Amino acid sequence: MYLDIVILSHLQRGPVHGYELKRNVSATTAYALHNNTLYPALRRFEEAGAVVKTAEQQEGRPPRHVYELTDLGRELLHDMLADLPAEQAGDEPEFLTRLGQFEHLTPDERRRVLAARASALRDQAAHMRQLAEKTGRSPRNHRWGGLVVTELADRVERELAWVARLETMVEEP
């Protein structure tokens, strides 16, 4: 789950209260983190021992909770970054979230993430070719649908080429 990675990676920067964490995520990513996503995740992480929550007293207001990543949380984050399961490899945010954190991975871990994405993209490319064949054989005019299929196929091919370029960079710090 890429949002779990995003939350943990922001906690890696230091202790932070929930509102500030939510604001930081929104300011530095394209993700709109909502309370009904953030706080259940923080609760799960706390129960797993990945996050510690402390109450910070405020004058005239209820205490606010500050969350801090534990060593176990750092290990969990690393494991999540290094693993891109086949069922998630076709999901662009899952891949890009890991790619954006490649500095935390070894070259072999980077290769595995890129290989998983490339495999998912090859599957998508095969699916696009099948769609293109069906569209081309159809007795009705599917010009607009054909344009969509062509564009999607082109996007997959461009990303496959990009992933191939990234594979040449895995040894770089």
Give the end-to-end Cα distance, rounded to a whole number of Å.
25 Å
Coarse structural class: mainly alpha
CATH class of the largest domain: Mainly Alpha
Task: Name the CATH homologous superfamily of the largest domain.
Answer: Winged helix-like DNA-binding domain superfamily/Winged helix DNA-binding domain
Number of helices: 8
CATH architecture of the largest domain: Orthogonal Bundle
In one word, what is the shape? Answer: elongated
Helix/strand order, N-terminal first? HEHHEEHHHHH
The proportion of residues forming helix, as a percent range, comes to 55-70%
The largest sheet is: 3 strands, antiparallel
Round the Cα radius of gyration to an integer and report it: 21 Å
Number of domains: 2
Topology:
Blueprint: H1 2-11, E1 16-17, H2 18-28, H3 35-48, E2 51-58, E3 61-69, H4 71-82, H5 86-89, H6 92-99, H7 107-137, H8 143-167
Antiparallel strand pairs: 1-3, 2-3
Helix pairs in contact: 1-4, 7-8
Which tags fit this structure?
173 residues, mainly alpha, Arc Repressor Mutant, subunit A, 3-stranded antiparallel β-sheet, 66% helix
